[in-house]
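User: Second chain of the day. Same drill as before.
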Amino acid sequence: MCTRAPIRCSLSRIPFWLLLLVLALPQLLQATIPQIVIHWSTLTETANAYRLQDRDGIPLNGGLAVNGDGSLATLGYFDQATPAEPFKGNWIPLTTGTTVGDSSSGYGYDDGMFSFTTVFTRGTNQVLVYPNEPAGYSVHAPFVILDSVPAPGQPICIRFYDR
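Assistant: Same format as last time:
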């Protein structure tokens, strides 16, 4: 019998496996919510000749070593698109405010290069951008991500704004 330290006594009587389950339960519950993780990136080697270019053939501005000053990039889809016609219909953005070369990625790529990760969670409209990076942030898609929205097989596109 313990009377002085009932918490310590009761914990010592709990089977070790049960204690681990209780401690891991929040992570296990979160892991059961389906997520879509999209890594979107160009080649990022300095000698790479393939760069994203604007309509005049100039590599997209990667910005300075501060956040938010490169060319705007948006992940989304066209509402009437098919795999054969990925740019058909109206543009539906899924992310906002992400910029090419943004130092949120922690790397400071050259003009015309980028690398982002976005995480979409089913049942919410929250989109994590740059998860696990120093300047990661969250945006909201214009609708809740469901099994049927966007439609299965819907091509996802990246739109770059050069001006």
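Confidence is low (pLDDT under 50) at residues 1-12, 16-21.

User: Great, on to the next one.
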